[in-house]
Amino acid sequence: MPEHLVLLAPGAGAPSTSPWMQAWARRLRALGPVVTLDYPYALAGRRRPDPLPRLIDAHREALAAARAAHPALPVVLAGKSMGSRVGCHVVAEGGAEAADVRALVCLGYPLVGATGKVRDEVLLALRAPVLFVQGTRDRLCPLDRLAAVRARMTARSALHVVEAGDHSLEVTKGWLRAAGRSQGDVDEAVRRAVERFVVALGGA
């Protein structure tokens, strides 16, 4: 498989140095070099995320820097929760930094906001292919609501479901015991799904 540059963005609650982010950075290296980023509020030690335009600007800046370091590689934008949503905005808004992004990988997309509103506008504006990786226990992205949005999307999309998974794709111990599997097995299945998705795009 040809190498890809992966830019991996964190969720709102933890920085790129968190165990979850570091573990997924290691897994995604199967695609090629992985670069992580942190948003300004996290770098400043604040807990409250920056306004969306500032998050988008920071994500775009990180993408430009990553591309400068790996100019020959096609780009995959991956992200956890908020990081995946901001990546979608970067691609949907276009610009030189986002040109030719091969794919988006959303690990726990936060489809439903705090008010209960379905945040689908950016998904409907996308043109780049996107893979959603969603747990069945993720209250921020009920699968029936996601299915309704995907049916209206112009961009090619795919879904990998993590049975009994939560917003961080962590599976209940009871399900793991019943299935005779480990969390590592679940994570490896996600990694393989991401790889298959990117490989299937070919030159798209």
Report on this model:
The chain is built from 8 helices and 6 strands; from the N terminus they run βαβααβαβαβαβαα. The chain starts with a strand and ends with a helix. The protein has helices at residues 19-28, 40-43, 52-69, 82-93, 121-125, 143-150, 173-179, 183-201, and strands at 5-9, 34-36, 75-80, 101-107, 130-135, 157-162. The mean pLDDT is 95. The protein has one domain (5-201): Alpha/Beta hydrolase fold, catalytic domain (Rossmann fold). It is α/β, with parallel strands linked by helices. The chain has a 6-stranded parallel beta sheet with strand order 2-1-3-4-5-6, with helices on both faces.
Beta strand count: 6
CATH class: Alpha Beta
Alpha plus pi helix count: 8
Tell me about the biggest sheet?
Answer: 6 strands, parallel
Please trace the helix and strand order, writing H or E for each element: EHEHHEHEHEHEHH
Please tell me how large the radius of gyration is: 16 Å
From the spread of the alpha carbons, the general shape counts as globular
**Percent of residues in beta strands:** 15-25%
CATH homologous superfamily grouping: Alpha/Beta hydrolase fold, catalytic domain
Compute the average pLDDT: 95
* Class by SSE composition: alpha/beta
Low-confidence stretches: none
The structural domain count equals 1
Distance between the termini: 14 Å
The oligomeric state is single chain
Give the proportion of residues in helices. Answer: 40-55%
Strand order of the largest sheet: 2-1-3-4-5-6
Query: What is the annotated CATH architecture?
Result: 3-Layer(aba) Sandwich
CATH-derived topology = Rossmann fold
